[in-house]
């Protein structure tokens, strides 16, 4: 069976072929152009019959399953399909509808079959090539789907390993927050924000998406923790729009860009701040930009999420609905992500 995209592709191909016939006949100023156009149309219909007999019936049923005897028998019958279709259209239907046929006078059926069998062979080869390309495409897509399912299963297993006892972790952090508050308010605030970060990271939604507002809150908590760490020597700006109302985005999608900017960028110079900006050019379109100067003496050697992994995740989650642009020049790194939510 063909999906909608494939049907459109086939329809466009046949339409172009018919348009070529139309231009060819009327462009040569031949006599009886209307008759020639009708006959050419019935010929194309006959070509369609042998093409789809091979493409939709013969090859999927026998070639894919390597049933060679049945395939050979079907190939032998293919010219019969073409000849019978053309005979029914041109020698039976056209005389009834328009009063003319392609062959006039007595028709030698053996010669008619031989002539049309030769005309049908090229279309059989075209059908074989088209089916081969489609089959290879479908197999590759199936392989990617299986790989995606395998990756999802592995991710779920990895996620389950983290679910030792989240309530225990939350309760412990709340206890530490209460104790830290008696000693140091900044330490208590850091503990509370860490608790919020962990709660968000361990949250699992059925479709893997969260409200954009919550993703922004996570980024704000993440930056706030770093600000506590660097005290007054942390220069990062984060601009967000006011109208975050119901938009949903894949969980933890934006944090790698921020993490990499803090890891590789300059964060302790007021004249060279890290600039993070989130905008909504349209209600269902998101743009996320991160601009940072590249640090010459990187101190944080922890492993972040590489650009290749980020691209891979975007391809899996937003196929055909994202654009990621990375620019690096004169010691400045600028990343722009556009998403169709």
UniProtKB/TrEMBL annotation:
Any single Pfam family the record assigns to this protein: His_kinase
GO molecular function terms listed in the Swiss-Prot or TrEMBL record: phosphorelay sensor kinase activity
Keyword ATP-binding in annotation: no
Transmembrane feature ranges: 37-59, 71-89
Entry keyword set: Kinase, Membrane, Transferase, Transmembrane, Transmembrane helix
Keyword match 4Fe-4S: no
InterPro entries in alphabetical order: Bact_2-comp_sensor_kinase, HATPase_C_sf, Sig_transdc_His_kin_internal
A single Gene Ontology CC term: membrane
Positions of the Signal transduction histidine kinase internal region domain: 155-234
Protein name according to UniProt: Histidine kinase
């Amino acid at each position: 069976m063909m999906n909608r995209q494939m049907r459109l592709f086939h329809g466009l191909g046949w339409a172009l072929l018919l348009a070529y016939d139309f231009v060819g006949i009327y462009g040569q100023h031949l006599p009886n152009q209307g008759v020639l156009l009708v006959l050419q149309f019935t010929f194309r219909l006959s070509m369609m019959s042998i093409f789809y007999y091979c493409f939709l019936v013969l090859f999927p049923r026998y070639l894919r399953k390597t049933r060679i005897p049945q395939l050979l028998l079907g190939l032998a019958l293919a010219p019969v399909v073409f000849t019978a279709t053309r005979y029914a259209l041109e020698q039976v239907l056209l005389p009834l509808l328009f009063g003319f046929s392609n062959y006039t006078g007595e028709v030698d059926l053996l010669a008619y079959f031989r002539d049309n069998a030769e005309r049908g062979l090229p279309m059989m080869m075209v059908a074989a090539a088209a089916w081969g390309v489609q089959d290879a495409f479908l197999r590759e897509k199936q392989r990617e789907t299986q790989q995606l399912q395998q990756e999802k299963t592995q991710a779920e297993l990895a996620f389950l390993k983290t679910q030792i006892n989240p309530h225990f972790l939350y309760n412990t952090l709340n206890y530490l927050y209460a104790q830290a508050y008696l000693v140091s308010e900044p330490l208590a605030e850091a503990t509370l924000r860490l608790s919020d970060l962990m709660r968000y990271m361990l949250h699992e939604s059925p479709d893997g998406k969260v409200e954009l507002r919550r993703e922004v809150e996570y980024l704000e908590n993440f930056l706030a923790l770093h600000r506590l760490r660097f005290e007054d020597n942390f220069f990062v700006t984060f601009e967000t729009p006011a109208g975050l109302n119901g938009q949903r985005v894949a969980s933890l999608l934006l944090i790698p860009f921020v993490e990499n900017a803090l890891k590789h960028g300059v964060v302790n110079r007021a004249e060279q701040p890290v600039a993070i900006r989130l905008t909504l050019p349209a209600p269902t379109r998101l743009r996320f930009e991160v601009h940072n100067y590249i640090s010459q003496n990187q101190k944080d050697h922890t492993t972040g999420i590489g650009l290749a992994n980020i691209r891979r995740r975007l391809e899996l989650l937003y196929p055909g609905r994202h654009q990621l642009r990375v620019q690096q020049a004169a010691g400045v790194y600028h990343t722009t992500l556009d998403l169709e939510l």
